[in-house]
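Q: Hand in one record:
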Amino acid sequence: MAQESNAVIGQLAVSKSGRDRGEPYLVLEMIDEAFVYLVNGDKRRIENPKRKNIKHLRFYPAVAEHLAQQWEAGQQVGNVEVRRVIAGFMETVVGKSPNEGGREIICPSQNPM
């Protein structure tokens, strides 16, 4: 079950709004009370995290504590490991396969001219 609460490093979050709506992320760093840095190991890699307002995120009670400890200690964590953790969380917590994705596909209507 999703919750609207304070985020912690390593926590699973899914975007509620924006062009990345439905995309899963892990919290990499807390910027302040309103913003966090997010990674997913694919489009948003460790080297280029996404800055997002926590109001636009849905947090789940799944925390990758081993990754959080490594990030807080300043150790490098691979993007492959981030993708693996997110895929596992999505299957167990959210109930979606990582291949399903969370995004809605919107097709433009075909208007005959």
In short: The chain has two helices and five strands.
